[in-house]
Amino acid sequence: MELRLDGQVAIVTGSSMGIGKAIALAYGQAGARVVVNSRDEARARAAADELGAAGVDAYPVAADVSQAEGVARLFEATNLHWGRPDVLVNNAGTNAIAPSEHLALLDWQRTIDLNLTGAFLCAQAAAQRMLPRGRGVIINISSILGETALPQRAAYCSAKHGLNGLTKVLAVEWASRGIRVHAINPAYIATSLDIEDQASGGYSVADIERRTPLGRYGTVEEVANTALFLASDLSSYLTGSRIDVDGGWLANGGW
Fold it and tell me: Which of 4, 124, 144, 233 is most buried per CB count within 10 Å?
């Protein structure tokens, strides 16, 4: 058996860069037709062009999935171009790092809206199209901070804990009707966003390497490989799972 998605339609939100683009590439190389999404039309198109040059059948859709209108636009465009989705990856997300006593309501709401509410709205829209066919896979890109916590991440941790809870509910609710729902909990992954977070989060590359049992950051490809396995039939008896792609971070109770 192979990790193949031949002929399937996969929507990957927030896929113009980082983990999302790596997942889109992995899915496309496995035979899927991939919807590339960003809030910015130019970024979505540029990512789709780059993936196309790598042999991926990619279609760009600009939509803000933190809003119901954007979610509707994403799924309507997908349906018009390729039909109903077989796989949804809720990858779009943002962070807010600040002392909790000073965390702005706007930053709290922005983080919850995109990381949690947007994921729910996309999952709901996907399920409405998957349930009549009795099959589909939904993958939520969560975080190790959906299982544990760090200071100054009140909004992010709340959203990711909520996303892992949502994963369990949807998995048990839709399992008998053919939809499998998973979450991936990455630890620190080498992306441009991490460089930005180092400045506001008060940590360094050396701190992460010291804290992680495998002694290094993860790569976007390692997360993408996990997402490919979960979308494929090789994971047919998995649902409601939270897969930690974390180099041993959560297992390590030491300093």
Answer: 144
